[in-house]
Request: fold
Amino acid sequence: MDSVTFDVVIVGAGIAGIATAYYLATQQGITNILLVDKRPPMTYTSDKSGSNYRNWWTHPAMMQLANHSIDLMDTIAQDNGNFFNLNRRGYAYFSQRKDILPDLKPYSSPIMGEIRIHDSVLTAYHPQENADLIGADVIIGHDLVKQIAPFVSDDIQSMIHVRRAGWLSTRVFAQHMLDIASQSGLVEMRGEVIHLEHNGNQSTLTINTAQGEQSITSSKLVLATGPNLPQIGKMLNLDFHAYNVMHQKVMLYDNKQVIPDDMPFMIFRDEPTVDWSDDELSYLEHHAESVSIPGNFHIRRVNNKWIHVGWAFNRLRTINPQEIISDNIFPKVLLKGISSFIPSLADYAKSIPQPIGISGGYYTRTFENLPIIQETTLSGLYVIGALSGFGVMVGCGAGELLSRMITGQATPSYTEAFSLSRYDQPDYYNTMQSYSSGEL
Reply:
């Protein structure tokens, strides 16, 4: 079996692998790149995301990475007529608590922008999307919140409207980056890596393709394998400190037009107040690994017919990702839970409208929910992974950062926060407890 050599081989054709290839080709002048995956691009985990993005983070390194990544997406949108529909509709975090101002202190940073408080009138609050507006508008008081979102429950007392946030057509965006990289010489290979060796500073891969096995060698190998990262780490005796958590969401036909078209991406953080059946409660406690059921419901309109609904309650860990199997109970508990915040959804919970789409993927994450972007202890072997639920929003920034590492360019000061060497710092685990995981 003859071997083919590439300057860089990237395993994994999700948003992380594609963005890395794009910036290697467009900024670093590397054109002899192989992108290999057994699936078509953007069809495993990246396409299961909500396609949302934000700069709203408490960890300083994530603030900077997310902001830079949004800058990069803005540039591509401006240069190409925004054909992938990047918007600035924002994120809206709702809470039953009125005393939320202490929660905002970690977000007080010049990078994030001004936090504007509205607790008496809304004359200075303009909900329309505005690409030049950053920071957040904080609406305090049930009556004021109801003026903006009359459909929420009567116990909602506050809303945080994050402005440098929104969503986009992720697959269209990724395909654009892939097309540009391909025009520069990127080669795609559809196949499964069945053997991987790393000797000295060279990696050798055996790839099973439809045409048979192919041997590939490269001095630069990038692991952008998403949920398969923990497994590959074991193969190479590398501990990536990563694990997988299954995440499901529902695409619901909103025939009652419960959610207005102009709302931001909405997140309800409080624990739902619901009279669960024994089976439902057992299901939730098992997957949440707790008798306390978390909040983290999220919802937005997709178009004039469909809404996207999710609930990040699952905490069950796995190293080996398996095929997502839809269960009948998930849509029921999801809609029952979120209807405690949006009462008009209660009818859907009782009789789920058809058609309904249930999709699922994995959050591949580290315990503190920071990504891994670095050259490993094996020379020439790089990893970009654990982009747990935020691959879309930091994909460009992470891919550009790794492209600079691969070509020996200078990297920003926050780079070290995404290296596995962070786990060698004394008291690191305790320090990270002061930061929000930023999952939603």
Notes: The longest strand covers residues 187-199. Residues 3-81+169-242+368-432 form a domain with the FAD/NAD(P)-binding domain fold (CATH 3.50.50.60). DSSP finds ten helices and 21 strands in the chain. The chain has a mean pLDDT of 94.
